[in-house]
Amino acid sequence: MALQMRLHCYYHHYPVLLLLLLALAAAAGGVAADDAGGRGAERTYIVRVDADAKPSVYPTHAHWYEAAVLSAAVAGDGSGEWPEGGPLIHTYSAAFHGFSARMSPAAAAALASAPGVAAVVPERVRRLATTRSPRFLGLLSSPPSALLADSDFGADLVIAIVDTGISPAHRSFHDRGLGPVPPRWRGVCASGPGFPPTSCNRKLVGARFFSKGYEATSGRMNETAEVRSPLDTDGHGTHTASIAAGRYVFPASTLGYARGVAAGMAPKARLAAYKVCWSGGCFDSDILAAFDAAVADGVDVVSLSVGGVVVPYYLDAIAIGAFGATEAGIVVSASAGNGGPGGLTVTNVAPWMATVGAGSMDRAFPANVRLGDGQVLDGVSVYGGPALEPSKMYELVYAGASGGASSAADGYSASMCLDGSLDPAAVRGKIVVCDRGVNSRAAKGDVVRRAGAVGMVLANGAFDGEGLVADCHVLPATAVGAAAGDKLRKYIASSTKQRPATGTIVFEGTHLGVHPAPVVAAFSARGPNPQSPEILKPDLIAPGLNILAAWPSGVGPAGIPSDTRRTEFNILSGTSMACPHVSGLAALLKAAHPTWSPAAIKSALMTTAYVRDNSNGTMVDESTGAVAGAFDFGAGHVDPMRAMDPGLVYDISPMDYVSFLCNLNYTEQNIRAITRRQADCRGARRAGHAGNLNYPSLSATFVAAEAGTGRATTMRTHFIRRATNVGGGPAVYRASVSAPEGCNVTVQPRQLAFRRDGQRLSFTVRVEAAVAPGERMEPGSSQVRSGALTWSDGRHVVRSPIVVTVQAPLQ
Ligand SMILES: *[C@@H]1O[C@H](CO)[C@@H](O)[C@H](O)[C@H]1NC(C)=O
Ligand SMILES: *[C@@H]1O[C@H](CO)[C@@H](O)[C@H](O)[C@H]1NC(C)=O
Ligand SMILES: *[C@@H]1O[C@H](CO)[C@@H](O)[C@H](O)[C@H]1NC(C)=O
Ligand SMILES: *[C@@H]1O[C@H](CO)[C@@H](O)[C@H](O)[C@H]1NC(C)=O
After folding, report:
1. pLDDT, tens digit, for every residue of 675-715?
2. Where is the protein localized (predicted)?
3. What's the Cα-to-Cα distance from 481 to each of 361, 433, 460, 511, rounded to whole Å?
4. E strand or H helix at 456, and its extent?
5. From the CA of 504, how far away is ligand 1's center (Å)?
6. Is 90 exceeded by the pLDDT of residue 645?
7. What distance in Å separates the CA atoms of residue 17 and residue 15, rounded to the nearest whole number?
8. pLDDT tens, 275-322?
9. Catalytic option among 242, 576, 583, 800
10. 239 catalytically annotated
């Protein structure tokens, strides 16, 4: 199976079902599809060691690691074949102690019991799942916003972008007006094809690439198609980097859309690019090497728009690398994934990371379909080439149903507009309706254009709902939702030779001030948290729909080889685009509050997030138009100005995470694999449950054992929290509770009187939920109710969502 780019960008569209299957395959067997490389059962393993356990006979850790792999191979199945240079792929020493190497499962099992080895984790492969967003977030105002000014735009901080590399010559990364590189920076500028040593400057202070893990599994990379250097030949990494920290660029637009000033969240922060994603995907061993280098280089924030996997934290290289980074004081912000709108789809869910979902902004790109019978169907597009003829009506054809298929193809392939499935004679000069799914949205446009059609309408199926993404198609094209798609297919089905179906696409350009906004993007991945439901995920949402940001000069905006157009900026959608917004904001917060821990910064972002939209309703879900909840948007939509001065924060130390892992009932060996600490879980387990991690949100999960038995049941739990006063002086906070429907929530004490800045005070939140005597719940079903706990001193409002999940047992 050919796995292509797997960034968390919706623009590289992967069929959702295929993604689900891959995720399930990874979860079930632990053997990813990409392992079918014909190299026997060998695969890459990541090995954590106790650094102090190195026997003195080995001069270096690398000698020790090599000897360990060789003897494990002998003990395992007596074989082992390694490339020149030995068995080690990467060695790690900063975020993590250990190495990666290829070996057979038998050798891995033997190694796992070798002295000094804490864990052996099979590698997995990840997929990569603006002009407006700074203003939408209140950052662009004149005079400059207090947040930007107070933090000097994050000038001394370095944001690591772990992605597809970077296009260094882009105007968004110029270094005019920036001071010298911060003296504590220890990174390098790795050069290579297309990336001379002069590529770095005072803005782009470092660049590295990591391909050994990729090539150990996939074979030597094709250097015609991709380059062995930090150069971005895809576009995704350039786009995300400029969202986090692009400079002010004016004018910026994509083929005329979204014209204005482009700027990242922290325009003066420095960037370091760590390229880990290649045409074959993003490999765990390389991602971990990037974390390791980023920690050693001295970055302040790691931004990771790469998909997660559904495995326990001790088997998850991103969770493990992120823990090491967090321990070093680095904020790790990661994309939640694009698997929405279904539940349980959120990824990158470890509590020490910020998990970022995607929302819309108050900007839209309407491109409506006008039909011959007078109907107008709402659509969106950022197509910017030669237009259709004004006021002409074109014949419409649905390739799946009306003979548009070529003789070699079936109706299904044609309905999807797969390569070679359209009959040029049947579609020439017409507008073709294609169903969404299987191949990428941009690729469908290319298929339709090559078949000789003049336009395309991309229609959602029921599975896609009403979520729309505006694309930079290669021909006049627009996207419509599931309901409009049904109308369109019906209209075409009812046409006859005498009365053909006709229509056209009306491109309206850029609209601002759209209501309601934000809405939760349909694709944004949803809770509950599949690994630890006690921790609400996603944490929050940020702009991720139709985001304009920098684009490399060597790549067309549609992201397909046949697209020869060039544009300095491109509009993409995905949680990939939401994550770097939070990364940049985290840098601003860290600049303004240098002593805050990563958990404190995340707390500030979460407790000040808002849940109302610009129509003053609770934010809605794009896929249904219905009111969204905490599993959709977490604590809410990020509000940078308020995050600057949160009043209180919920802080978490690395030891607190150890207690949390103890309360997940992980073994001490598993905990050591993540934290490299010897955990003594007895105390932690006595002290309570995983929900007592000092997290800025509250999630109570009950199993209603007696649901449907006719007996009334009340279920109770409690949470302990500890708030730190960061408001600057004495303050008295009072609690107010909006209890989830049908639940009782009590807070004790109801008042926190802080005498000084930095003081910590604890409180308890008790939650009671009930199943009424007559209440029936389907076996395995669950009820989710949301509320909130808010502390206020009259000046600050510190809000934590409370989610109560009552689950009926399976039988
Ligand atoms: C390498 O990539 C180029 C450009 O995509 C392609 O033409 C060539 O066939 C590839 N070579 C191999 C060995 O796959
Ligand atoms: C917004 O809605 C809330 C809750 O319904 C209400 O209390 C508030 O007054 C409203 N604000 C405005 C500006 O309408
Ligand atoms: C851990 O084990 C204890 C005792 O068996 C159990 O009560 C608790 O629910 C378990 N916790 C989790 C998170 O599985
Ligand atoms: C909430 O408290 C009230 C008053 O004490 C009680 O009648 C009710 O049963 C409680 N509800 C739950 C869900 O525990």
Report:
1. 887 788 888 777 789 999 999 999 999 988 766 565 667 89
2. Secreted
3. 18, 12, 5, 19
4. strand 455-459
5. 39
6. yes
7. 5
8. 999 988 899 999 999 999 999 999 999 999 998 788 999 999 999 999
9. 576
10. no
| Helix (H/G/I), strand (E/B), else coil: 587 | helix
User: Edge-to-edge strand order for the sheet containing 431-435?
Assistant: 376-377, 367-371, 502-507, 394-398, 431-435, 455-459, 477-480, 379-380
d(CA 130, CA 572): 10
> Where do the domains of the chain lie?
2-122, 133-362+519-642, 366-508, 694-807
316-339 per-position pLDDT tens digit: 999 999 999 999 999 999 999 998
CATH class of 2-122: alpha beta
DSSP string, 321-342: HHHHHHHTT-EEEEE--S-TTS
Ligand nearest to the CA of 611: 2
Question: Could you please report the per-residue DSSP string of 747-807?
Answer: EESSEEEE-STT-EEEEEEEEEEEE-TT----TT-EEEEEEEEEEE-SS-EEEEEEEEEEE
Nearest partner of 355 among 403, 305, 399, 408, judged by Cα: 305
User: Residue for token digits 């502390």?
Assistant: 791
- Higher pLDDT: 583 or 264? It is 583
CATH number at 366-508:
3.50.30.30
Two tokens, residue 477: 């094209």
User: Which ligand is the nearest neighbour of the Cα of 279?
Assistant: 1
CA distances (Å), origin 480, targets 215, 544, 567: 40, 19, 25
Q: Which residues pair with 547 in a beta bridge?
A: 572
For the domain 133-362+519-642, what is the CATH code?
3.40.50.200
Q: Which region holds residue 138: left if phi is over 0, alpha if psi is between -120 and 50, else beta?
A: left
Number of CB atoms found within 10 A of residue 67's CB: 14
pLDDT exceeds cutoff 80 at 668: yes
pTM of the model: 0.89
d(CA 96, CA 291): 9
C-alpha span between 445 and 456 (Å, rounded): 7
How far, in Å, is the centroid of ligand 2 from the Cα of 616?
A: 6
Structure letter (DSSP) for residue 405: B
* 744-748 sheet: strands from edge to edge: 648-650, 713-725, 760-771, 744-748
Distance CA 620, CA 627 (A): 4
- For 109-177, give the secondary structure using H, E and C: HHHHCCCCEEEEEECCEECECCCCHHHHCCCCCCCCCHHHHHCHHHCCCEEEEEECCECCCCHHHCCCC
Q: How far apart are CA 221 and CA 228, in angstroms?
A: 8
**Active-site residue identified among 34, 35, 156, 163:** 163
**Could you report the per-residue pLDDT of 122-148, keeping only the tens digit for each?**
998 887 753 345 556 565 544 445 555
- Catalytic one of 236, 581, 593, 637: 236
The C-alpha angle with vertex 218 and arms to 212 and 222, in degrees rounded to 5, equals 85
CA distance 628 to 341: 11
8 carries an active-site annotation: no
CATH for 694-807, options being 2.170.190.11, 3.40.50.720, 2.60.40.2310, 3.40.30.10: 2.60.40.2310
* DSSP code string of 196-214: -GGG--SSEEEEEE--HHH
What are the residues whose beta carbons fall under 8 Å from the beta carbon of 671, sequence distance 6 or more? 314, 658, 661, 662, 677, 679, 681
